[in-house]
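Board notes (copied after class):
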Amino acid sequence: MPTAKPPAFAKADTDCINLHVLEQDGCESWLADAPATVANWARAIGFRGAIGQSVTIPGEDGLPKQVLVGYGTSKDRARRRFILAAALTSLPKGTYRLTQGIPTDERAVECLGWLLAQYQFDRYKSGQDLDRHLIAPNGIDAAHIETLAAAEFLTRDLINTPASDMGPDDLHRAAQALADQHAATLDVVADDDLLTQNFPMIHTVGRASDRRPRLLDMRWGTSGPKLALVGKGVCFDTGGLNLKPGSSMGLMKKDMGGAANVLGLAHMIMASNLSVQLRVLIPAVENSVSANAFRPGDVLTARNGMTVEINNTDAEGRLVLADALAYAAEDGPDLLVSMATLTGAARVAVGPDLAPFYTDYDTDAAVLSAAAGTAADPVWRMPFHAPYEAMIEPQIADLDNAPSGGFAGSITAALFLRRFAGDSRYMHFDIYGWTPTAAPAQPKGGALQGARALFDALPQMLGL
């Protein structure tokens, strides 16, 4: 892992194709000043600078020498991401040099989109190189953009891999490979007795599977603020004894999307040598069905001593995260973040594209929201609504893992997790981790959500 070809910009090439990006409002003016052969050809095929449009202009030898690509209007661009990538597959194969048209403050995102559009999940089926390569334009940090793209490739690969090849042991190996790449350490707790004693809810959720549950604990960096990332690593979720219907189980290979996202974020942090003491905790389990599966009505005791009444075994992600969060909080992190494909309620609230996040810190929320805009990684703040605390407090235990009624499902899950973060400065992401409909630079399948925005926000949030 990862299986995808590493994303990279092309080296300078004297035989490259010039790429002119034209806004729709300025297209006719540009054509008026262009050579008649270029302008007449563009007009003849109806090119007007709309998003996704392109025109190839050949040289005297018949080979493509320049390409016009539409950049649409500002109104159209506000509704889209990765505009340049929208025309990528319509372009002739070759190496491209960007000559004009993209505002300086938008170039980095558009170049990232070009690299992200190169992604193919070809572990089980041979893919084809798009053979459309871009020379990094002046004024962008090419190495930084390649790092961001590599992180997303890693996250996509991990989520796209079916559970037959991405169980807790496979997720362990993927984390180990990332740790080895960056000279990080990885400690693993997989012994049944140690899990039962120290991380009882992780063990309880994962014990029904013949693939042993475990807690992955990666550390990197020796100076700077302490940053702890906790990712939900449920490698497949049957729902347990509250068995999901088949239609709801089909995408459950992606239930480790939180783990995949924190590993992608960890790659960004380590590859960029961010001045933090990084810790990544991943409870890796399968929620399966067998004679020793945990039951509705059981009362579990978490690592921090709190008791949890189980009213639905399909609300298992918050249980494994609870133990990991309690463990992370014991180390006194300066910022504690969890990422999880946690609730369907979040999807109902904001759909698949937005990454909902929770925090009690208004400044952190503002910084993250601003970073999301520039990073083309949309997020949306949700409330830790204190009056709903009563909904997660049952009669016979400290907490209820699945309040009845179905109201405010994402909020009550976030409130549940906050109980285990102690006094930490805490932020939680309830992500989808999946692109259901392909879009430019966003193929159908596993997705990185919120992590790139958070990475851009971390320096300001942590005072680096």
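Comment from the instructor: The chain has 15 helices and 19 strands. The first strand starts at residue 17 and ends at 22.
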